[in-house]
Amino acid sequence: MTMSFTKGLLIDGQWLPRDKTVENINPSDLSDVIGRAACAGPGDVDLAVDAANRALADWRQTTPQQRADLLEAVGNAILARKEEIGHLLAREEGKTLAEGIGETARAAQIFKFYAQEALRIGGELVASLRPNVDIEITREPVGVVGIITPWNFPIAIPAWKIAPALAYGNTVVFKPAELVPGCAGVLAQILEDQDIPAGAFNFLPGPGRSVGQAMVEHPGIDAISFTGSVPVGRRLAAAAAATMKKIQLEMGGKNPMVVMADADLDLAIDCCVQGAFYSTGQRCTASSRLIVEASIHDEFVARLKAATTGLRVGDALAPETQIGPVVSADQLESNLRYVHNAKADGVDVIGGDRLTLGKDGFFQQPALFLGVDNQQTVSREEIFGPCAAVIKAQDFDEALQLANDTEFGLCAGICTSSLKHAREFKRRSMSGMTMVNLPTAGVDYHVPFGGRKGSSYGPREQGRYAAEFMTTVKTSYTFAG
Ligand code: UN1
């Protein structure tokens, strides 16, 4: 296979090589080194933040049409290359080729959506309490936005943070996850190819502990949008408070999928299997708790076991593969530890072992933890792998109570044919998103995304609601007597 190398960092419109690099390895085939990515250091954060601040004066004055044209062109350029980028995505992250291409197309559509949103920036005109005074409420760019993204959606998550940031007139300093610098580098190149003004978009691949930390502490960054783990999110929020930055955090999930006895069971099996295991379960929206009504529990579990053990795990790029590898050695080790500890605690575990296939990769059999209650470790902690706990509930009320009994609150699903159950569930679920007869993972890009409790902090991402974080409100009073 050909090796691809990222060109370095993009700061102030210049590609800057760096001596320090990290290898980008294919998790389906550890002998496949995809390339080497340059590694930014904390000094580069200063350079990028300065460039972003200098560029802001002009960029915030661009017309909505200029920004719309740029974002539309970026979306079209991504779309035109969706097979190639999707292939790179599957190769570096390990989701299947179909998932990689699908994610790339979604990233393109996100840019095209925000191209249009740039044209819809408006405000309010409100009558004052005083005579001959008008009040205007307008939205302005928040300033320089620092964007820190995870490895599990190498192009879609960068897209849904970068596109609204630029659409609303902000400049960007973007740090992708170290494990997936390839797609991020392609995205940076595409933005540059569309002649984005120097400094309006800066690309800083590098480690979170140094580069991400320096970004959140930097007084020249006005807002940080982060997707990643709860512990890192908590650290970033504390650091952001020290410099009074606006912050938006998308973190973990322990998303329940409730299956009621009145559900279409074929559909419910599909929702559980897709939600729990597709994209190797490496989604914060994954269904990691399958809560099944007691009267159908045994029959449902028998079918779920058959569907789970029938999944084809393999090389992300092979057409027959349904479940690609785990992303890295560390993640695999962590997943296997959960499986090992569950077995040691006497849990009935189906699957979960490391798989040896033709190629040396991080393959793991999808795991079901059967007969567990909602207090066990595998029901509480986000594993972030192809692993799901199956929990029995006596009736709807208990299922709802179990669904809400978690420190997370991202997405909650129910499979039911009862309008009453569906309605009650939507109203009483303590989550940011609910799904009826749909998997918990796999969301639309034009509506808000986010959760409650430990899952999210700050305003929502995506759709029109992204304006809440990406802009700041100004109230202007004018007297003309
Ligand atoms: C999806 O389920 O379609 O990190 C998106 C994540 C989420 C994105 C999930 N922020 O998994």
The DSSP helix count reads 15
Outline the biggest β-sheet.
7 strands, mixed
Beta-strand percentage range: 15-25%
Radius of gyration, CA atoms, in whole angstroms: 23 Å
Choose one word for the global shape.
globular
Bound molecules: 2-aminohexanedioic acid
Residue runs with pLDDT of under 50 for 5 or more positions: none
Give the fraction of residues assigned to helices. 25-40%
CATH fold naming of the largest domain: Aldehyde Dehydrogenase, Chain A, domain 1
What does the average pLDDT come to?
97
Q: What topology, given as strand order, has the largest sheet?
A: 14-15-16-13-12-17-18
N/C terminus separation: 74 Å
- How many distinct beta strands? 20
CATH homologous superfamily of the largest domain, by name? Aldehyde Dehydrogenase, Chain A, domain 1
The CATH top-level class label of the largest domain: Alpha Beta
Structural class: alpha/beta
Number of domains as seen in the coordinates: 2
CATH architectural grouping of the largest domain: 3-Layer(aba) Sandwich
